[in-house]
Amino acid sequence: MKSYRNGQNYFVSQEDKGFFLENGYVKLGQVLNEEELESIEQVYDAFKDRKLDCVKEMGKDFCDMSQDFSTDFEDYALINAMLPTKYHPEFAGNIFEKLATQISRQLLGDDMVKDYDQFLTKKPGKAKASFAMHQDMGYWPLTKDTRTTTCCLAITPSKRQNGCIGFIPGSGKAKELIKHSTKDDNSHTLTLDLPEGSQPVFVEVERGSITVHDEWIVHGSGGNVSNQYRKTYVLAHRAKETVKEERAMGFDHSHNSIDFRNVDA
Length: 265
Known about the structure:
This protein is an alpha+beta fold. The protein is built from five helices and 15 strands.
């Protein structure tokens, strides 16, 4: 049986759960319907186009993730709006949050709770709107329990041409951090050298479907050479005690907060 949506619930099949646990990622189809997507996309575009007053308060949480923090908005290639529900609380509790929580708990346990959210936009014709290969744990403090599901919703279709995500299957099974380095001097972006012989599997995703990946898998994405935006809504869940541990350290995934990047680990 395939994973499926029924009413206000999403059901992850044992086959898809097993694939996630073995490979570190999985693709789940038809999570949101068109009406739900249109509602979410209105808020998404208001951030992307800086039409909300709260964007002025975001500091480094509104930035270009492919370039340094000093880049002018007109020159952005990869627009990052970090923690949208922090700055626009009315958006909290939306249908994707509810379904992503269900999915996370089915994959990793009933103690999984929302950790952070993020809007990522690759502008058309921007080959440099890419994410270097990395592990998410390269950006985060090491905690006792690292279990994570990062759900990436395709608000627009995610294709090779517009920079869909690529994974190195099974690359996180050892649960060890590979050596990372900074992409440049004034950027938040990390990069790593791919394990020898590894080849990314690029996962194309239709509008309304998602990928889910864990905290250790090596992944990244190419630039957008198409003539359309690529829009992705990211929601990450971690164990409730892990989120409490993070916050006690002063870490909330904001670029304005303490920097816990594990560089040259």
